[in-house]
UniProtKB/TrEMBL annotation:
PROSITE patterns reported in the protein's UniProt record: ALDEHYDE_DEHYDR_CYS (PS00070), ALDEHYDE_DEHYDR_GLU (PS00687)
Domain Aldehyde dehydrogenase: 30-438
Name of the protein in question: Aldehyde dehydrogenase
Active-site positions on this chain: E219, C253
Organism for this UniProt entry: Thamnidium elegans
Record family assignment: Belongs to the aldehyde dehydrogenase family.
One GO BP: aldehyde metabolic process
Any one of the GO CC terms: cytoplasm
SUPFAM superfamilies hit by this protein: ALDH-like
TM regions (residue ranges): none
Length: 505
């Protein structure tokens, strides 16, 4: 996608205003309308599967299997889940009243759309990370403005061109562009912003949103560790860890960023890593159709600089690069220390450093001296071993004895904590994040004789009644009967003996 195909900055305010006017008509609040749009999104994925895979190949050299597993099928699954459960999600939720004065009233929360929401996607999973939150936004009844990442230009151009043919253009729009266009977008008022990307841009998004007091969901990243304990299964660990790390060429926000390996497992693990990589990609991954590429020369140069700053003797597997082809081989760097250059920032590429540790307490300290990661992985056979790590660390999510798979489970919310993100989505959480729970109370008019004790002028009888209505009856049979008697006496005086009585009611 070239700059000439970007959305004109001058038109962005009118696009946002048009969506807001459309939301105010109530079009997207209709549940059947929402279901139809979700069905159309499924059709978009199914009817354009080959074209989407072609665009993803052009951007990231993703194999069709990685396209389906990591990009397209999750959108279809999420849509189907929402269609099946939408009626239930939209029902008012009745509450258990705790205030005695409201005992005869109706109290519930209404699940209402927030309004016009902005979804900013990421380049590493340009279909999934753009459309997955959009599913929740549609299901919740919002109008949506989509901003695909310009870095994955082929996919962004395809979505911008084709998706509007499937979703109702009155309620959903796509804006394309780079930093100037995104900056212009953020100057507008939205009712929610959902951003997936890095922390630096996340701060910019949050700062812009603060000017309008707009709520924000940030799905960021960070250095996600993988613990390998002394009782881990080496063969299974190698297969699952190598798959998860080098899926999408390591350009995954929850990819294991570094390994904390018990020293007793280091040598057998390195051997298993080597054997597994040959099994997956052959002796020369450069010619393997199953192995992806770096998205851009900018990202390639960043990763190449990291490699160049490593001691060559520590590059125990891989290390080969080809800038013209944006190729970096699956690379293992070992051993390193927590102060190593590879530990200074999220790697976000096919380089995996290993820190040998004497015990898991040492590993836990290394993790806790850093920002909370988006994901945390533990390979261990004994339950007490991984529970100890979970008890003493914090992360957005956790997966024991595997990599990445928790993202596919719709019953689990996905999100970060602290610098790795705020807010979560997937499954029902995708609906909730774009919904306002509107507290609603319907007062009982027939209860006015009781409610009237709150009105001035105040007196001792009203005070006695209000104490019971506010604080309830005390525990203990004797105290309850005593308080009930006091309440009844006060109510009798209030209704029939005082000048301000409500006896005429």
């Amino acid at each position: 996608m070239t700059g000439t195909t970007y959305t004109s900055i001058d038109t962005i305010p009118s696009i946002v205003n048009t969506l807001r006017m459309q939301f105010n008509t109530g079009l997207t609040k209709d549940i059947q309308f929402r279901k139809e749009q979700l069905k159309n999104l499924i059709r978009f994925c199914n009817e354009n599967n080959d074209a989407l895979c072609k665009a993803l190949w052009s951007d990231l050299r993703k194999h069709v299997i990685e396209c389906d597993v990591g990009e397209i099928s999750p959108i279809v699954d999420e849509c189907q889940f929402m269609i099946k459960n939408l009626d239930k999600f939209c029902k008012p939720v009745h509450t258990n009243k705790r205030f005695l004065m409201n005992a005869t009233d109706k109290t519930y929360t209404r699940k209402e759309a927030k309004g016009v929401v902005l979804v900013i996607g990421a380049w590493n999973y340009p279909v999934n990370l753009l459309l997955m939150p959009v599913v929740g936004a549609i299901a919740a009844g919002n109008c949506v403005l989509l901003k695909p990442s310009e870095v994955s230009r082929h996919t962004a151009e395809f979505i911008a061109t084709v998706l509007p043919k499937y979703l109702d253009p009155r309620a959903y729009a796509v804006v394309t562009g780079g930093v100037p266009e995104t900056t212009s977008l953020l100057e507008n008022r939205f009712d929610h912003i959902f951003y997936t990307g890095n922390g630096q841009v996340g701060k910019i998004v949050m700062t812009a949103a603060a000017k309008h007091l707009t709520p924000v969901t940030l799905e960021l990243g960070g250095k996600s560790p993988a613990f390998i304990t002394e009782d881990a299964d080496v063969n299974i660990t190698a297969h699952r860890l190598m798959w998860g790390k080098f899926f999408n060429n390591g350009q995954t926000c929850v990819a294991p960023d570094y390994v904390l390996c018990h020293k007793s497992k280091l040598e057998p693990l390195l051997k298993a890593f080597q054997d597994t990589l040959i099994e997956y990609y052959g002796k020369d991954p450069h010619i393997s159709e199953s192995y992806g590429r770096i998205v851009s020369t900018r990202q390639f140069d960043r990763l190449k600089e990291l490699l160049d700053n490593c001691d060559p003797s520590t590059v125990v597997i891989g290390g080969q690069t080809d800038r013209e082809d944006l190729y970096i081989a699956p690379t293992i760097v070992s051993p390193i220390t927590p102060e190593h250059v590879l530990m200074q920032e999220e790697i976000f590429g096919p380089i995996l450093p290993i820190i040998p540790v004497d015990n898991m307490d040492e590993a836990i300290n290394i993790v806790n001296n850093r920002d909370h990661p988006l994901a945390l992985y533990v390979f261990a056979s004994a339950k007490y071993k991984y529970n100890k790590i979970l008890d003493k660390t914090s992360s957005g999510g956790v997966l024991i004895n595997d990599i990445l798979m928790h993202l596919q489970e719709l019953s689990l919310p996905f999100g970060g904590v602290g610098p790795s993100g705020s807010g979560s989505y997937h499954g029902e959480k995708s609906f909730d994040i774009f919904t306002h729970s509107r507290s609603t109370m319907v007062k009982d008019l027939m209860a006015e004789p009781i409610a009237a004790c709150r009105y001035p002028p105040y007196n001792e009888d009203k005070e006695k009644m209000l104490k019971v209505l506010v604080y309830g009856f005390p525990t203990g049979i004797g105290a309850k009967f005593s308080t009930l008697g006091s309440f009844c006496g006060a109510f009798w005086n209030f209704m029939f003996k005082k000048p301000e009585s409500y006896s005429k009611l």
